[in-house]
């Protein structure tokens, strides 16, 4: 009995020590010799000799999943070994099964083991992608604390979650054993000394400046505050471990929370490809269902008339939401500007009527803080009105000459200056009192826009181009050149993209940085009327424009074909404006004398509400 115990223990030591080193072709020869171990030392010598003949042939399997037949899911003869799962160790000659305490369990008969082994079908060899998925699942289960489940998964699949050295490395970091942590990174620390020599070459100077600032801290508390470091501990070391893992290959140690990262990327990609996605959702996975593909319904999109404003008594030429989204200004041929208040339920109510614009109002511009509103008239108008919206008082009525044509205006980002001009060659920069600060002669301006640098003014002119003008150093440069007249244009919030309404061509999207035409949008009817389009929706992913065929067209910025055509107006739609704060609110102004407010479909019943989770195709 003692001899049997001793022989079983020797076999377990041999298997646990040599199995990771064996090539698959040697595994059968080693396990077959194990049966002779029980007979004496001669068997032990034979087993060691058999293993030594090819011990170096299986080294490459150390970095991922073990490639021997016991660990890739294959089943071999009844004498083959399995080892080390949650403290359980088994010999596979049918003699014994023991736990960590070495207490043997009742032995099974050789006939029973042989019968079971012969009945097991050969399992499918796992592909690399299948092994990767198993490791990802194992990592996620480990993060959830389901360690026993991980052990069973790794045992049955024959995979290994991470390299043993990676496990030791993780433990060293968490325990703060920095001398042991730095050994794998000695090569990288050597390179850091070379980086110091590269400082004059401006290599990662921002990081060098940050580290230099840390060196100036005289107290530990100052260093922690400056570096936003909570001090040593588990939380801090876990963050450090996440950074260090980026230097290790994934075959050794998986990147932290890799499965969650992949799922989050998949969800974000589906949102980007969704034509009607127009809401800002939590980037976490808890806000979505992973069991269904992401799909927004057209009923959630501002395609339905929610309100018709009929207070104007003539053609409505322009409309514009304020920067904070709480007000809408509309200008009409009836010589009035009406300011509407947007309440919390997104209904509009008349707030103020600003009168006295003898030529009508064809353009409006809110100041950056929404305190002031500038109104311009049509081509034959030489006046400009600057209103205080809160008080309803006219602060400035500006006119440099009766021969001027002030048809467009744009605010400087500082809110203290604005530029204005027209097609008769006037191009002025003025203060809030209408005093002339600078002028640019000979520029026949069709439309204006001030960039965020507070220096550059974009102006479209009668030469079918957009040029950039700098009033500080009096320089100008060509940015956009079209083949047909540019009737109007607007610029995205980041200043990168420009949206042009081009006569007889429609709506064009330009990249102002690269100075290239990005896309031509189809469907809209654009002649020589001045029609104003806009960016809008969540992240400005959408584009809307009026049209001479009485419709409002909406495109996803990446798609040339419209995703919605809104009907309801009876004459040309001159202008559209998307609320910058409420992505589901859109306004359109028309020659029919009305302003329409568009929003999502109302919830008529439970079935309609549930239908919002389905994706609807565009209604023709």
From TrEMBL:
Subcellular location: Cytoplasm; Mitochondrion
TPL/SMU1 LisH-like dimerisation domain residues: 130-159
Region listing for Disordered, in residue ranges: 51-126
Pfam families, A to Z: LisH_TPL, WD40
GO cellular component: GID complex; mitochondrion
Biological process according to GO: proteasome-mediated ubiquitin-dependent protein catabolic process
InterPro entries: LisH, TPL_SMU1_LisH-like, WD40/YVTN_repeat-like_dom_sf, WD40_repeat_dom_sf, WD40_rpt, WD_repeat-ST_regulator
PROSITE patterns, sorted: LISH, WD_REPEATS_2, WD_REPEATS_REGION
Low complexity: compositionally biased ranges: 83-100
Native organism: Oncorhynchus tshawytscha (Chinook salmon)
UniProt keywords, alphabetically: Cytoplasm, Mitochondrion, Repeat, WD repeat
Protein's UniProt name: WD repeat-containing protein 26
WD repeats: 309-350, 354-385, 566-598
Ranges annotated as biased composition (Polar residues): 59-78, 108-118
């Amino acid at each position: 009995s003692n001899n049997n115990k001793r022989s079983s223990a020797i076999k377990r030591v041999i298997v646990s020590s040599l199995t990771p080193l064996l090539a698959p072709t040697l595994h059968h020869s080693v396990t077959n010799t194990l049966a002779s171990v029980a007979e004496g030392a001669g068997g032990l010598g034979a087993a060691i000799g058999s293993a030594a003949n090819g011990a170096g042939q299986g080294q490459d399997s150390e970095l991922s999943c073990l490639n021997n037949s016991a660990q890739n899911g294959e089943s071999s003869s009844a004498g083959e070994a399995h080892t080390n799962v949650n403290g359980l160790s088994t010999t596979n000659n049918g003699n014994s099964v023991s736990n960590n305490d070495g207490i043997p369990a009742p032995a099974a008969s050789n006939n029973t083991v042989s019968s079971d082994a012969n009945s097991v079908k050969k399992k499918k060899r796992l592909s690399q992608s299948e092994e990767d998925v198993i490791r990802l699942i194992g990592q996620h289960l480990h993060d959830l604390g389901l360690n026993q489940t991980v052990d069973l998964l790794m045992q049955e699949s024959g995979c290994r979650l991470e390299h043993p050295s990676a496990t030791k490395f993780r433990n060293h970091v968490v325990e703060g054993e920095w001398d042991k942590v730095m050994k794998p990174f000695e090569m990288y620390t050597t390179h850091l000394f070379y980086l110091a020599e590269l400082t004059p070459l401006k290599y990662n100077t921002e990081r060098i400046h940050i580290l230099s600032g840390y060196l100036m801290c005289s107290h530990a508390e100052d260093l922690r505050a400056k570096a936003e470091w909570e001090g040593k501990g588990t939380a801090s070391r876990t963050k450090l471990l996440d950074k260090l893992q980026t230097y290790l290959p994934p075959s050794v140690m998986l990147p932290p929370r890799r499965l969650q990262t992949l799922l989050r990327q998949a969800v974000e990609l589906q949102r980007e490809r969704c034509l009607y996605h127009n809401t800002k959702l939590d980037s976490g996975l808890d806000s979505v269902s992973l069991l269904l593909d992401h799909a927004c319904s057209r009923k959630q999109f501002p395609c339905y008339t929610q309100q018709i404003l009929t207070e104007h008594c003539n053609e409505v030429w322009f409309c514009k939401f304020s920067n904070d989204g709480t007000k809408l200004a509309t200008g009409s041929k009836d010589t009035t500007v009406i300011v509407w208040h947007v309440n919390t339920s997104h209904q509009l109510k008349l707030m103020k009527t600003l009168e006295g614009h003898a030529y009508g109002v064809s353009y409006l511009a809110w100041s950056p803080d929404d305190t002031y509103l500038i109104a311009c008239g049509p081509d034959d108008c030489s006046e400009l009105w600057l209103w205080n919206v809160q008080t309803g008082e006219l602060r400035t009525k500006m006119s440099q000459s009766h021969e001027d044509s002030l048809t467009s205006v744009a605010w400087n980002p500082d809110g203290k200056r604005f530029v204005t001009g027209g097609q008769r060659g006037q191009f002025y920069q003025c203060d809030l009192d209408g005093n002339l600060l600078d002028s640019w002669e000979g520029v026949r301006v069709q439309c204006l826009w001030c960039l965020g640098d507070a220096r550059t003014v974009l102006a479209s002119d009668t030469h079918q181009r957009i040029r950039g003008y700098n009033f500080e150093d009096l320089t100008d440069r060509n940015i956009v050149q079209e083949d047909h007249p540019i009737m109007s244009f607007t610029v995205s919030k980041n200043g990168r993209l420009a949206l042009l309404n081009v006569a007889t061509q429609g709506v064009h999207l330009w990249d102002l940085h690269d100075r290239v035409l990005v896309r031509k949008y189809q469907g809209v009817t654009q002649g020589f009327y001045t029609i104003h389009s806009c960016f809008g929706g969540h992240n400005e992913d959408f584009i809307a424009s009026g049209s001479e065929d009485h419709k409002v067209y909406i495109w996803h910025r990446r798609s040339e074909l419209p995703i919605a055509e809104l009907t309801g107006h009876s004459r040309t739609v001159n202008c559209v404006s998307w609320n910058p704060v409420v992505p589901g609110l859109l306004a359109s102004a028309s020659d029919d004398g009305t302003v329409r407010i568009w929003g999502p479909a109302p919830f008529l019943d439970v079935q309609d509400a549930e239908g919002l989770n389905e994706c609807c195709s565009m209604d023709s």
